[in-house]
Specification:
The structure is a single chain. The protein is an alpha+beta fold and 407 residues long. It has one domain: Orthogonal Bundle (Cytochrome p450). It contains 19 helices and 13 strands. It starts with 16 loop residues before the first helix and ends in a 5-residue tail after the last strand. Bound molecules: protoporphyrin IX containing FE. The site of protoporphyrin IX containing FE has 25 residues, from α13, α14 and α19. Pfam families: p450 (PF00067). This is Cytochrome P450.
Length: 407
């Protein structure tokens, strides 16, 4: 079953703008009628039910990450990068993950809370003042998205004066990752080259004068008795920027959008901030920043009576799995900020489970605590919003805010 150029509503076609705007009817059709879907051009398979995706991502003996995470044949070659942690299988993956985990200890993550809160405060002061003066505020560009960029700069220990350089690099990397194959990749490649030059210098400096930051930790770390090379460390920086930035910003933006779609739920959350940590998982379940990533079969795999041969790309449709009624019940499409969610796939599962999930949740928790305390009627103007076009992630380019002028 192959999707065509004008496949129409409810048909799975990851390249189609209408599908990207509202993929959920197509996901439902896949789950119900075609749970082991075969796509012809480009050739790949897609799993859409929760249990199938859950089991597949937890089975590295059959599903490998080493051929990349998209259905593009050579995505990493396009960037001239060595494979990063997210594109490795055990045992090398296990050893690298152990190293990077040193930068994400609960203590280190928790210690960032006061700085993140101060940053969020400052952004809200500015947004509120602009809204009160009758100016437009872009919730995504001016609030949600700067938070993770600030956090990454903190994590890397960038000098304050250099942070202005960092923003455009992060945007370029994000553009490449989110379909940059057709989005000005050359400009983005220049920005990446510039960023790598800057980081190479930083790594040299941290080797000589290590501090407490993540780059210093990595310069001191050893793998199989050897220090990590500059190239290894650059790969880590790349994966953190590409994986930890827009994902987190979009979680915050989608959360505001979802709360604006059901004001009773927004009132519940504004009245009880203890609900916020659970609500974040609910936002991610309904509107996941990562909608799907691929694995490659290492052996023939049989699911629901259909055999996927060895060497095939298989999309793990996290965005569909997270709305599966078989897992979340008949109201799986509804927002319930108090929902119990024993397991979900917003951060994947298994060996590649998101290593930054605590940090992402910390940022989003602070964002919602502060936002709802100050602007309990915060919302978004979808009529003027612009969605990001991507076959793999779900997010925003622009998302105008409402309700910021009523403090
Ligand atoms: C809401 C925000 C986030 C979402 C939705 C998210 C989602 C994900 C997902 C789905 C994966 C698994 C990829 C796969 O299937 O192969 C992943 C892995 C990863 N994420 Fe996140 N992520 C978020 C935030 C972050 C942050 C803040 C960081 C770090 C600053 C981060 C760093 C990583 C890394 C390093 C991996 C690779 C782990 C490995 O391969 O072992 N992520 N993330």
């Amino acid at each position: 079953m192959t999707a065509t150029a004008d496949a129409g509503p409810g048909v799975y076609d990851p390249f189609d703008e209408a599908f990207q705007a509202d993929p959920y009817p197509a996901y439902r059709a896949l789950r119900d009628d075609d749970p082991v879907h075969r796509h012809d051009d480009p050739p790949f398979w897609a799993l859409s039910r929760f249990e199938d995706v859950w089991c597949a991502v937890r089975d590295n003996s059959a599903f490998s990450s080493e051929q990349g995470l998209t259905f593009h044949p050579d995505e990493i070659g396009t960037l001239d990068l060595a494979p990063t942690i997210v594109m490795l299988d055990p045992p090398r993956h296990t050893r690298l993950r152990g190293l990077i985990a040193k930068g994400f200890t609960p203590h280190r993550v928790k210690s960032m809370e006061p700085d993140i809160r101060a940053f969020v405060h400052a952004r809200l002061d500015e947004a509120g003042a602009r809204a009160a003066a009758g100016e437009d505020v872009d919730l995504h560009r001016e609030f949600s998205s700067p938070i993770p960029t600030f956090v990454l700069a903190e994590l890397f220990g960038l000098p304050d004066g250099d942070r202005g350089l960092f923003d455009p690099w992060v945007r370029a990397l994000t553009a490449i990752q989110d379909g940059g194959f057709d989005l000005g990749v050359l400009d983005a490649k220049d920005a990446v080259a510039e960023m790598f030059g800057y980081f190479s210098e930083l790594i040299r400096e941290r080797r000589a004068h290590p501090g407490e930051d993540m780059i210093s930790v990595l310069t001191q770390a050893e793998l199989d008795g050897e220090r990590l090379t500059d190239w290894d460390i650059l790969g880590f920086c790349f994966v953190l920027v590409a994986g930890g930035n827009d994902t987190t910003g979009n979680l915050i933006s989608h959360g505001v959008m979802l709360l604006d779609s059901d004001h009773r739920q927004r009132e519940l959350l504004a009245a009880d901030k203890d609900l916020i940590p659970g609500a974040l998982l609910e936002f991610l379940r309904l509107e996941g920043s990562v909608q799907g990533l691929a694995r490659t079969t290492l052996q023939p795999v049989r699911i629901h009576g259909i055999e996927i041969p060895e060497g095939q790309k298989v999309m793990m449709l996290y965005g569909s799995a997270n709305r599966d009624e078989r897992e979340f019940g008949p109201d799986a499409d509804a927002l319930d900020v108090a929902r119990r969610i024993p397991r979900h796939l917003g951060f994947s599962s298994g060996v590649h489970f998101c290593i930054g999930s605590h940090l992402a949740r910390l940022q989003a928790r602070i964002a919602f605590e502060e936002l709802l305390a100050r602007y309990p009627d915060v919302g978004v103007d979808l009529s003027r919003a612009e969605r990001l076009r991507s076959a793999f992630t779900r997010g925003w380019v622009h998302l105008p805010a409402t309700g910021l002028d009523a403090s």
